[in-house]
């Protein structure tokens, strides 16, 4: 399986799991809705680790880059979709903070000893 | 609109519960990460650590859902993600004596500053009034 397909699969599953977790806690507070969100979120989120391991397998020489590609796509995709679905209203400064967290994670992961020649 | 004493104490209670759920999520997810790390390096017990790590990982989602229920979803996600990232980096550095490069330290600092910025409670006026309270913790 090629890298792009694996990344898309992993990102989609991570984003779906996060939406399911939030959906389960949103609105009426019914127990049945909570359990549905919890089970569906974990049923989709947990197997996504299989694709993450495949991504690491395709990039054995640069696991740091693999971690950034996999992690940042899921994080940014979830942030954007969740903001749209749940009508999130954050200030510009707060969005800058979220962007700084994503960038900082990438810098910290790529700046590791294995990424340097 | 006037904020009553009852509103303040309800808010304090909500902040306390949310903070406790976040702290619990950090702790449980940290244990899961230790298991995954040990499972990766100690292949003889790989399956054991994988199973135990996933039990802790799934447990952490219960706490995470508790946070999601009480906060703005984008803030909840960034606090959960950055908090576990910072805690994991710090703990792995301390336990496994990992050597961090200057760039890694800079990246970790950026995550810390980003988390503080994202958590700042700044009321934004809109045509309907101030932003809903759930925007901030």
Tell me what the structure shows.
Chain A has 117 residues and is mainly α. Chain A has one domain. Chain A is 78% helix and 0% strand. The two termini of chain A are 28 Å apart. The mean pLDDT of chain A is 84. Helix content of chain B is 75%, strand content 3%. Chain B has four helices and two strands, in the order H-H-H-H-E-E. Chain B has a two-stranded antiparallel ribbon. In chain B, helix 1 runs antiparallel to helix 2, helix 1 crosses helix 3 and helix 2 packs antiparallel against helix 3. The longest helix of chain B is centred in the first third of the chain and has 37 residues. Chain B is flat. The C terminus of chain B is likely disordered. The interface between A and B is large, with 45 and 46 residues.
Describe the secondary-structure layout.
The complex is a heterodimer of chains A (117) and B (137).
Chain A: H1 3-25, H2 31-45, H3 48-58, H4 63-85, H5 92-110
Chain B: H1 5-41, H2 46-70, H3 73-95, H4 102-119, E1 125-126, E2 129-130
Antiparallel strand pairs in B: 1-2
Helix pairs in contact in B: 1-2, 1-3, 2-3, 3-4
Features:
heterodimer; A: 117 residues; mainly alpha; 78% helix; B: 137 residues; disordered C terminus
